[in-house]
Structure formats: structure tokens, C-alpha cells
Amino acid sequence: MKPVTNRRLRVLSSIHRGLIICCVVLVLVFGGSVIYWALSTKPVPSSYVPVQGQTFTGIGRVRVSTADYQPGVVILFVIFNYNPDDRVFSEELVLRIRDFRDIITEYIGSFSMAELHSQDEEVIRAELLRRFNAILRLGQIETLFFSDFMIIR
To answer: In terms of domains, do 33 and 67 share one?
Structure first.
């Protein structure tokens, strides 16, 4: 019986060695892949990161009638970045939501459909930004964005 047991031990030890070798190879391949990936990926330049802080979306979607005889509707969703850690400015923004909506309604509502189609969106954003900042006392908005800007007849 001893020769059979020796053969079993040799077979088991060779299987054991094979499994250990497979595990070592897998660890080396996986570890090497992780190291290669970590060294080959480039960090995203700061110029590609559009949002610093948090996006203020509290104004919501505003629907404005145009100044036409048969008015069209402009649907506008204005957003901008702000620092949520500045509690005082954040509170002022929340308190001014009604004023922001009134500014949008007054300014956009003064245009006809044809004027809005011919206006450059950049000019509209710049004027709204100027008007928003004119009423703010505790901080300023740097950049204004439109996530929706639709003109509907």
C-alpha cells in the first residue's frame, strides 16, 4: 500500500504546485495590469472640469410669453455654479429666486419671436448675468448657463 500512497501524494503535490503556480501567475498579471493602468492614465486637466463647487438649479424652468401680437413661449432653465460652503451667499441665492424669475420674465418677455431668433444666446446670458449680479449683495455669479432654451410658437 505504501507505493499507492506515495503515488497519490506525488499526484496531489503536483496538482498543488500547479494551482500555486496558476495563482501566482494570476496575481502577477492582475497586479501588473493595475500598475500599468495607474501609471498610464493621465489626470484630467483642470480646464476640462467645468463645474467648480455646486450647480444652483433653484430658479427652475421658466416659461415666458414673447412680446408678439400672438405670443410664442420661451422655455428657459438657468443654472450657475456657486460655492455651497458660503452659507450666507447660498441663503441670498435662495431668497432671490423670485427676483431671478422676475428678471428672466421681464427681459425675455420684452423680445418678439423674431428678435429672440436673431439674438445671440451669449448676449442674452451676459445681460441676465449682469441683471442678476446687480441685485446680489453678498456675492457674485461668475458664469450663467442655459440647460434649456426653447422658443415655441
So the answer is: no
